[in-house]
Write a structure and sequence with these properties.
The protein is an alpha/beta fold. Helix content is about 20%, strand content about 30%. The N terminus is likely disordered.
Length: about 375
């Protein structure tokens, strides 16, 4: 697809409600010319490589609202995981030439190498408006005919009730960093940028999502970190059970899915947002002092406000009032829905890692 004289192959994106978008194929060719998933949109203006390699997008097709994607290529340092787990990528204009001193290749080649299908030339403004009005929904895209694509979209299960964490979590424990504190980090789809932040204060042992609380406590950690990850928290019941056992026995800090799972372990309820929060410019109010943080976010589910009696809401989303932070009253545990590590995005909330360090040292 990239480069002058590249062959253009027509493709279609078809939503489950029958709405159709024309475009051109890019990236890998999907089996039978059809790729499926739940289509969402992300508003970042840069950082597309980090977004595509964020495991939290497992099961989803990423639409970039920024029109020019791929213009600075890809490199070997910005991956957030071992490979992309998203189902596909939708862009308005894929750069035919990339330009950056850091670039080691182009985005189209990166997608091909990792087996990720994509479609370019799509009216992403129209698509985004449709998702905002109708909500995130199943979709199919590729070079197959419109009838087959619509049937595939209708047959796509989406993310509700699906344990996507099991698809992205590590198979065996591994260690990162050599700091003085000891942290056990649950890998629900953990990003490498998070590990870099934690490694500044601690030696981190990353463990599979299914690790039992007893096995975590046997490692005698100073703290437990609950990572980001994909999909519906209600489908990850084994993690909720483990967190319930850990609360009050070791300091806990959760981000994104980790925040939702902590909320569930505290007896709270979670629900699916209409089209989720995906981007690097979401305003969040810190209730303690009314300070505003511009945050990076990537989630489709949230903790229901008022459903937890034993914790205070510490942050709220200024766009829609969604709960963005929790702090327990009786045990050393807190969480945020957004991504203080950024990767990509602003760094307004990096202080939360220092709060976790203080919580561990004071325990």
């Amino acid at each position: 697809m990239t480069g002058r004289g590249a062959t253009i192959t027509e493709a279609l994106l078809v939503l489950a409600d029958g709405t159709t978008f024309e475009g051109e194929a890019m990236g890998a060719l999907p089996p039978n010319g059809i790729a499926t998933g739940e289509v969402v949109f992300n508003t970042v203006m840069s950082g597309y490589q980090e977004v595509i390699t964020d495991p939290s997008y497992a099961g989803q097709i990423i639409t970039f609202t920024y029109p020019h994607i791929g213009n600075y290529g890809v490199n070997n340092e910005d991956d957030e995981s071992r490979r992309p787990f998203c189902r596909g990528v939708v862009v308005r204009d894929l750069a035919r030439r990339h330009s950056s001193w850091r670039a080691a290749g182009d985005l189209d080649g990166f997608l091909r190498r990792h087996g990720v299908a994509g479609i370019t030339g799509v009216d992403t403004r129209r698509l985004t408006r449709h998702i905002r009005e109708a909500g995130a929904m199943a979709a199919a895209f590729g070079t197959a005919n419109e009838t087959d694509l619509k049937a595939a979209a209708i047959g796509e299960r989406g993310t509700d009730g699906v344990d996507l964490v099991a698809q992205v979590s590590c198979d065996a424990p591994f260690t990162v960093g050599d700091g003085p504190l000891r942290i056990v980090a649950y890998d629900f789809g953990i990003k490498r940028t998070i590990l870099r932040h934690l490694a500044e204060m601690a030696t981190i042992e990353v463990v599979p999502a299914s690790t039992r609380a007893a096995d975590v406590l046997a490692r005698a950690p100073d703290g437990v970190f609950l990572s980001n990850g994909p999909g519906d928290p209600a489908a990850v019941t084994y993690a909720v059970d483990a967190i319930t056992e850990l609360l009050g026995r070791v300091p806990v800090f959760g981000i994104c899915l980790g925040h939702q799972l902590l909320g569930a372990a505290l007896g709270g309820s979670t629900y699916k947002l209409k089209f989720g929060h995906h981007g690097g410019n979401h305003p969040v109010k810190r209730i303690a002092d009314d300070a505003i943080e511009i945050t990076s976010q990537n989630h489709n589910y949230a903790v229901l406000d008022g459903s937890i009696d034993s914790a205070d809401v510490t942050h709220v989303n200024l766009n829609d009032g969604v709960v963005e932070g929790l702090r327990c009253r009786d045990v050393p545990a807190f969480s945020v829905q957004y991504h203080p590590e950024a990767g990509p995005g602003p760094h307004d909330a990096r202080y939360l890692f220092a709060q976790f360090e203080s919580l561990m040292r004071d325990a």
